[in-house]
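Homework help board

Subject: predicted structure for assignment chain

Our instructor gave us this sequence and asked us to write out the predicted structure in token form, then describe one feature. I got the tokens but I'm not sure how to describe them. Can anyone check?
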Amino acid sequence: MTDRTLLPENQLGPAEKLLDLVLGSSAHLWHNRPGLDVDGKWYPRRDLARNRHLARGVTVRPGLFLPAATTLYSKLLELYELNVVLMAHFASYALKETDWRDLKVACAALMLVQTRSGQPVHDDDGTVAFYDDDHRRIGEAMLLYYEHKSARMMAPKSVLRVAELLETPEIAELNRLAGFGDPASKKPPLGRWKSAARSWLRVREHNRPMLEGLVAAGYKETIKKLARKAGYKPESAAFFELLGWKQKQAAGGHRSVGLDGTLDVHRRERFDGISEAEICEAIVTQRLRYKDVVGRLPKDMGLTPAILVALLPTLSDRDLRIMTPTLESMGLLTEPEIRARWEVAIANATDQRALNIAKNVRDQGVKAKLEEAADNAARQAVAAATAEVDVHVMFLIDKSGSMSGAIEQSKEALSRILAGFSAEKVHIATFDTMGTHLAPKAPTRAAVQHMLADIRAEGGTLHASGVRALRRAGRVIPRTAKLVVIVVGDEAGETGQNFAQAFAECGYEPSAFALLVNVAVTRGRTVQDAALAAGAPFSQVTIEQFDDPYQVPRVLRALLDAPRAAPKKQFGLVERVMSTPLLELRS
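My token output:
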């Protein structure tokens, strides 16, 4: 047994780099609360009382979490250096096909500063033969992309964060080392961010309802910061008036807008001195949103049930899920109309954050519903990844003695994953030297936990026994279906050739192999070698990735979209990325 991966890090190609990026990167770069840095991983500071191992962590302030930012940006740089075109398509894919906001920010930042910027290429006689590809336009298009009511376009905060990321000294140094800026300059390379940000602001100044909507949504201060950082010069005083932004002449005396003394500044006054009923009336008549209200409430009143009810129409499904503990404490979840709206939000969950929220509620029924939200997120991820082709998934869970101390972590990860699959398309077995077929009683996280509860780590290791157990149980994979084999464990055991042979003997034809790495003692390579023997692609992700509630749906989609072997002509993640049209600037 060895402790090697399929390819050394320095031999990974663009496809493997792309999978590693999607499967192995942190979901969040920015956190709005104090945290702890434990070996480069962010944890909420409030978890310190419950987890002793966090005591060695270093306190970090709210804001950008540097270890995650440098890791993600470094991986994007590696992908760019390996294949510029793949990186250009991946940036377009990140914007239009994912909801990973921080990935959009990092991709836009890289595309805005990279060197492929439409430079002229000259013939021997000095004339311009042609112009190079201008991939910086993709970064500009990411910032300027607009689609009515779409959650995929970049919000004002994301546009600002692109500059904040590029200005971070560690990221600026990475860009200089990549040749994206003057190595002697003290200023961080920003590429075309300022011009793109000015264009973003100009579009909204020209479209007053759009700007008013952003102000009502609580982005007033963000837009001010954007204007300052980009050096934006508004065309009329109305821009300043709507933002409630008083102006004074600059030291150089060059300002000309909003300085004639007639600026009618729109200020949002506090609600001090008026009744709860009047506040609710103002919310309804002025169509105020949650962010625009909470900071203006009288200190002796705060957020009340009546005010929250008035704000409910402006809250998104995600807001409602996050605010579940508040809704419960105010007794609002017992109101039929509010409960119905909340349950719709549960059904529409796209991440598993509800599992963390469930820890802060008391009612068992509410807890169960929040866990249902996590199941719904997994189902949506599986449905999205399998929409184009019939996919069956075989989960083989290592319960051998070498997994002692790690088996519980496998159970927790699987409880977050397996509820996403329909019973007829997921095939589950545990194995040591003997395989055992498993089937949850219901397609829920609770049923999966019940199914896995009695599993203990003991015995030898024979991956093939799990395959044979599924065959004995009569589990059949249609010939027209794609079979993805996902093994959970340390892949120590028999040779990969023997493992691959078991599939052929049982009449199964894997389209891809994946490994959820969970190592208690030592690491083998049975699954990797089986993939090589079967001529199928292999991908892997560490089991710790499933601790992140945002990462579970993302990893599921990526595993099911893993690159397929060329002879099978099946559509995988890299093919999906490369088929995404490059973003273009709209006139």
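Reply (TA_rk): Your tokens look well-formed. For the description, you could write something like this. The radius of gyration is 27 Å. That's the kind of observation they're looking for.
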